[in-house]
Design goal:
There is one protein chain. By secondary structure, the protein is mainly alpha-helical. The protein contains six helices and no strands. The protein is 83% helix and 0% strand. It starts with a helix and ends in a 9-residue tail after the last helix.
Length: 206
């Protein structure tokens, strides 16, 4: 009788350990899949960013200073990010928690943003440094128009300081700082995309 109980206890322990190992392996596979998919789409989105920049560069580089172009680029990014998240959700069986959706979107944006930052630094400092003064002038014109629209006007000292700050943003330090500040924007964007792409499995709730 005692031996039978011992056998049952041993079997229970073995089964429990087996189930725990299975769960760990499944979690590791999901985590690995998340990383691979995020890296893949981060690279794709980074490539899209480079292509858009090159197209604008060939047409008119000052378009990068226009808010309308920035909105168009944002919409393209958002659409690609939502599509990437839903593609990953389909690989998970059609369901995805908010946490996974947020993490996936954030990693994609960080990788894409880093790739874009590296390309922009090379473009502005090595490929064609002559476009930096053109962009600075375009951004200064936009800033002056904005101040005039609100009934203000900057003095010469303030405008010179603004121009120096814009020039600094195209250096390695400026690009790196811009990327770090972008992490906040990426987090906010990932919250939005995570809320859009999440989908609960109602059958698991019962």
């Amino acid at each position: 009788m005692i031996q039978e109980r011992q056998r049952i206890v041993i079997k229970t322990i073995i089964l429990r350990n087996y189930n725990l190992n299975q769960i760990k392996m499944e979690n590791q596979e999901v985590e690995s899949g998340t990383n691979q998919h995020s890296v893949k789409w981060g690279a794709i989105l980074g490539l899209i960013s480079i292509i858009i920049t090159l197209i604008v560069y060939l047409i008119d580089i000052t378009l990068l200073a226009k808010s309308a172009v920035g909105i168009i680029i944002f919409v393209i990014y958002l659409a690609a990010l939502i599509y990437a998240g839903r593609d990953y959700r389909s690989k998970l069986g059609g369901y995805m928690s908010f946490g996974k959706a947020f993490t996936h979107a954030f990693v994609v944006l960080v990788i894409a943003g880093f790739i874009g930052m590296v390309f922009n630094y090379l473009l502005f400092n090595f490929i064609d440094p002559d476009i930096v003064p053109i962009l600075v002038e375009a951004q200064m014109e936009n800033a002056m128009k904005a101040m005039e629209a609100f009934g203000g006007a900057g003095n010469t000292e303030m405008m010179d300081g603004m121009a120096d700050g814009i020039k600094e943003s195209y250096t390695l330090k400026g690009q790196a700082m811009g990327f770090l500040w972008s992490l906040i924007v990426y987090a906010i964007g990932s919250l939005i995309v995570g809320a859009i792409n999440k989908k609960k499995n109602k059958e698991e709730e019962f």
